[in-house]
């Protein structure tokens, strides 16, 4: 019995939860308490964008912003706003 097998390239991506853990671990080092932030994850052509935004409009300060590789979880870019 002959079996035809075709090889397909499989693109594996990390889950949203894994990407969030990577960003959260780094952000906690810089900001400690992240309870006052709303977190947005967006998959774009250059990677996962993870943005932390203050939930209180009148609160002074900034937030961390990341671009993370969807395949290996490397932080490609990070910006801390103060």
Tell me what you see in this structure.
Strand 3 and strand 4 form a beta hairpin. Helices cover 20% and strands 33% of the residues. The protein is built from one helix and four strands. The relative contact order is 0.22. The chain is elongated. It has one domain (16-80). The protein is of the alpha+beta class. It has a four-stranded antiparallel β-sheet with strand order 1-2-3-4, covered by helices on one side. It has one helix spanning 16-31, and strands at 37-44, 47-54, 64-68, 75-80.
Index terms:
33% strand; elongated; four-stranded antiparallel sheet; single chain
Number of helices: 1
**Basic shape:** elongated
What's the end-to-end separation, in Å? 67 Å
The fraction of residues in strands falls at 25-35%
Q: How many independent structural domains?
A: 1
Mean pLDDT: 84
Radius of gyration from CA coordinates: 17 Å
The residue fraction in helices comes out at 10-25%
Major β-sheet annotation: 4 strands, antiparallel
Structural class comes to: alpha+beta
Side by side, the strands of the main sheet go 1-2-3-4
Unreliable sequence segments: 1-10
Question: Topology, pairings included?
Answer:
Blueprint: H1 16-31, E1 37-44, E2 47-54, E3 64-68, E4 75-80
Antiparallel strand pairs: 1-2, 2-3, 3-4
